[in-house]
Amino acid sequence: MNKILIQIISLLLLLLSLGCSREEPQYLTDIRIETIMPHGIKAEIKYASKEVVLYNQTSTHKFETDADGALIVPELIPDVYTINTCWELTGEQYKELVAETIFLEDNAKVLITATLTNVPIYDSKDVVILLESLILKDLVISKVYYSGTKDDMNRNYIVDQFVEIFNNSDDTVFLDGKYLALGESKSPPAFLASDNPDYIYTRQICMFPGNGNDYPVYPGKSVVIAARSARDHTTSAANSVDLSAADFEVKDTDGMGNPAIKALPMYSSSTSLKFFNLITGGPNAVFLFETDENVLEWPEFYTPGSSTGERFRRVPIETVTDGVEILKNEAANGPNIDLKRLQNSIDAGFATISATSGYVNESVERKVCRIGDGRVYLQDTNNSIEDFVLISGSKPKDYENPQLLNLE
């Protein structure tokens, strides 16, 4: 009996010893987190007094940045963390922060934000957060399918081009009276953005019909504009697109082309073409603008040094609400950013397809930056290099393509 009692006491002492010897978690101390403001923000603006959240599967830690936009994490268990921060501003507030003048509605929503996933923090080295600006305008150009493709007889096929416009806001927006435009596409360019900081020179302008509230675009929804022909093009080119349910077709009047599709007539054009003349290999400077002025009273200009030929109507950049610079992919050196038609305040970058002349069934499409409340939000940093991706096999109104998801 005594032997059994001794064994029990020994076991209890062993367990007690193990419990006492268990090591406390080893904390990292004084981890410094710095923030770098997005490109274009004035140098004196800091990410001050903003919440930064670090979390993993077991814990969440919240901190606030100091006057310099930095913070010190006093102690943290070594692990892999997600770091998230967001500063929400109105368009009016954001315009006060940027170095260049931009056209942005005062009630627009802008996010200065960053999300870093799978950040290993196993020592006390500094962490740097690169912030980006997400300008959640109401209407943005979300897809431009301009390359065309090959039909079932392996011939060039270009009548399937389309442009898509997406409502990135949380409110219903009406297209009525707004304008879709295409910049000049001379080679070499007739009116470079670098030489014309205040205006875009257009080859074609279309004006959406309606009396103010006839053509709504609901939050998270889009409209498709068939540039040439609103029909199911897969019947002629199997890898093309079905535009039979497009919302608009660029044509003179209702009843022409596909009679079931509303006409988007050409309002101003430097050519006699009645379709939206997207160039299969680029360049294509596509943009939206709004004005209460009579656009037909805005001046037109010949190519510099010429007094004949095409004339290009001049659009003030302060009327432009969104734009996508599409450059030609030159065979020797790729896209030449010096040939931009859109100013950096409208698009600081550019998009392009892989081919030099088109016919490859490729489009440029805006990334998804956030999913919430049953809808998607699209990325808009005013830089198409960051905001757009090259898609092979475009599908109108489809935002579930994994290549569009920019959520990491």
Topology:
Blueprint: H1 2-21, E1 28-36, E2 51-55, E3 60-64, E4 70-76, E5 79-90, H2 91-95, E6 109-121, E7 127-130, E8 132-136, E9 139-145, E10 149-150, E11 156-157, E12 162-167, E13 173-174, E14 179-183, E15 199-207, E16 216-217, E17 222-226, E18 248-250, E19 262-264, E20 266-269, E21 284-289, E22 300-302, E23 311-316, E24 320-326, E25 362-366, E26 368-372, E27 375-378, H3 384-387, E28 388-392
Parallel strand pairs: 1-7, 17-18, 18-19
Antiparallel strand pairs: 1-4, 2-3, 2-5, 5-6, 6-8, 9-12, 9-25, 10-11, 12-17, 13-16, 14-15, 14-21, 15-20, 15-23, 21-24, 22-23, 25-28, 26-27
How is this structure best described in words?
The chain has 408 residues and is mainly beta. It has two domains: 26-136, Immunoglobulins (Immunoglobulin-like, Sandwich), CATH 2.60.40.10; 139-404, no CATH class. Helices cover 7% and strands 37% of the residues. It has helices spanning 2-21, 91-95, 384-387, and strands at residues 28-36, 51-55, 60-64, 70-76, 79-90, 109-121, 127-130, 132-136, 139-145, 149-150, 156-157, 162-167, 173-174, 179-183, 199-207, 216-217, 222-226, 248-250, 262-264, 266-269, 284-289, 300-302, 311-316, 320-326, 362-366, 368-372, 375-378, 388-392. Strands 19-18-17-12-9-25-28 form a seven-stranded mixed beta sheet. Strands 14, 15, 20, 21, 22, 23 and 24 form a seven-stranded antiparallel beta sheet that branches. It has a five-stranded antiparallel beta sheet with strand order 3-2-5-6-8. Strand 10 and strand 11 form a beta hairpin.
